[in-house]
Amino acid sequence: MDDATLSECQDDADLLVERLDRLWARGTLAALGSQPQKMIGKYQLQQVVGAGSFGVVYLARDTKLEKSVALKLPRLEVLLDVKKRKRFADEAAMAAKLDHPHIVRVYEASLDGPDPYIASAFCDGPDLAEWLANREQPSSWCAIAKLMAEVADAVQHAHSRDVLHRDLKPANILLEAHEDSSRDEVQGQLGDDFPFSPRLTDFGLAKFSDVQEADTRSSQMIGTPLYMAPERLEGCEATVAADIYSLGVILYELLAGQLPIEGEHYLELVGKIRRQSPRRLRSLRRDVPKDLDRICAKCLSKEPDARYETAASFAKDLRRCVDGLQIQGKLPTRRNRIAYWCTRPERVTNAGWFGIVSHLVLIAWVASAVMLIPTQFDLKEIQWSKQVSQMLHGVCFGFGPVILVSWFVVQRYRWAVYVAFLLTLGKIPFQFRAMVYEPVYFADLYETGGVYVFMDHFIIAVLLLFQLFFLGCAILVDRKHQVCR
Q1: Per the residue annotation, which of 62, 167, 243, 291 is the catalytic one?
Q2: Residue 300 burial (10 A CB sphere; 0-12, 13-18, 19+)
Q3: Which of 17-21, 108-112, 113-117 has the lowest mean pLDDT?
Q4: Residues 113-151: pLDDT tens digits?
Q5: How many other β-carbons are positioned within 10 Å of the β-carbon of residue 162?
Q6: Neighbour tally for 39: CB within 10 Å
Q7: Residue 167 catalytic?
Q8: Nearest Cα to 223, choosing from 208, 214, 235, 211?
Q9: 125-341 maps to which CATH number?
Q10: What percent of the chain has pLDDT over 90?
């Protein structure tokens, strides 16, 4: 199946999921309309206010304390699936560990019985995604920096309790108006008066940082690709650095009005996030300070080690930027960027394909030289046969094995990477010797032209050096990521 077909299938799947969610929510609303007094424990359901990763969120009334709460109920498929129901229970366990002013507070959870639920504080305001969709012009960079500093504080609180969110995005950040602010003000532009506070919610995809990934997920991808770190798209485990990257995407979107990486379909998006660097903020919005641009770029570094070590350090730099102080976080150096490029998993396949293509080019080079011999030299038939024999011998024993081993490198066989490296390393001194002292092939012809001896073998030596470099990178990649078999 080609990329175009996969793209169409993905688009159709996305549309189907969107329609099913819409129909499901509509059916839920209709059911509530026919049973307006439905009770779940001590809570009276009133209306649907949103949907989470594994359930739907209702505005409900606590009939004992006479206050409004957000009641999250699992979807039907979650109730029927043991693993998903466990994840719903894990969300309650993780949220119960968190107590922070910028995290939606969980009051209680009931996980037994036919109607499990999680009751939490109700925020009478839009989420950040809704606000982004409705805004008409860019907001103050200062207010956005303050907002993201508070969100980072919440993320740091979760990390300090060994909880990784794994699905940080605007839809999971609620906006709660201050007591002296109205909902209309919250839905307007962000001003320096800062009329609301963010509330981080939806820990349905969160996990404890000391739990292995295999224990908390099945084979499907966890999270939202638009806000997901590149290493997560490559199958690596969730880390603090992955949450930092997601914070950087949100900051970029709030400031620039667009995502740092965009694609027309899922496959294109994933490929760009893994390989393409976003445009710098100041190229899209000139009023953004250079330090804030650097903060965002540091969060969006492809290399996890180049990002902020903690959400707290990210928040600290945001506040220093607002106060006009020098930030402490520095962008990765050119050496760091080169080291990152050299240790990407795709360097293994790059090494294999470079070996195949370069040696096919060398075969074409040698063959064309042999074919042109009769037009340049007056050779007898015996001498011509000798040159053809040398060419075939060089192709079979000099280039053929490298092409064969390089194909196994493309298939990511560990032994092939090391064998190809040793073969290439052994041929390089041989080529440099031939440049100066004695040619490897066509010795009779080269006697009349030392320049040709040097150039032919020099070109081969350069290709071998590049091949050695890629294979060296492949070895580093395998030692770091264990991508070979």
Answers
A1: 167
A2: buried
A3: 17-21
A4: 778 888 888 888 888 888 888 877 778 899 899 999 999
A5: 13
A6: 13
A7: yes
A8: 235
A9: 1.10.510.10
A10: 16
Q: Is 429 or 155 the better-scoring residue by pLDDT?
A: 155
144 CB contacts (<8 Å, ≥6 apart)? 190, 251, 254, 255
- The alpha carbon of 241 is separated from its chain's Cα centroid by a whole number of angstroms, namely 11
Q: How far is CA 144 from the centre of its chain?
A: 24
Q: Angle CA(456)–CA(459)–CA(465) in degrees, nearest 5?
A: 140
Which residues 6+ apart lie within 8 Å of 429 measured at CB? none
Supply the pLDDT for residue 153. Answer: 95
Q: Report the alpha-carbon distance of residue 103 to residue 118 in Å, rounded.
A: 15
CATH class of domain segment(s) 33-122: alpha beta
Q: Is the pLDDT of residue 263 over 90?
A: no
* CB 329, CB 315: distance < 8 Å: no
Residue with the larger pLDDT of the pair 482 and 230: 230
33-122 and 125-341 in the same fold: no
* Phi, psi dihedral angles at 214 (to 5 degrees): -65, -20
pLDDT band of residue 353 (cuts 50, 70, 90) is: very high
Show the CA angle centred on residue 27, arms to residues 21 and 33, nearest 5°: 140
pLDDT digits over 231-262, tens only? 888 777 888 999 999 999 999 999 998 899 88
Which pLDDT band holds residue 459 (cuts at 50, 70, 90)?
Answer: confident
Boundaries of every domain in the chain: 33-122, 125-341, 346-481
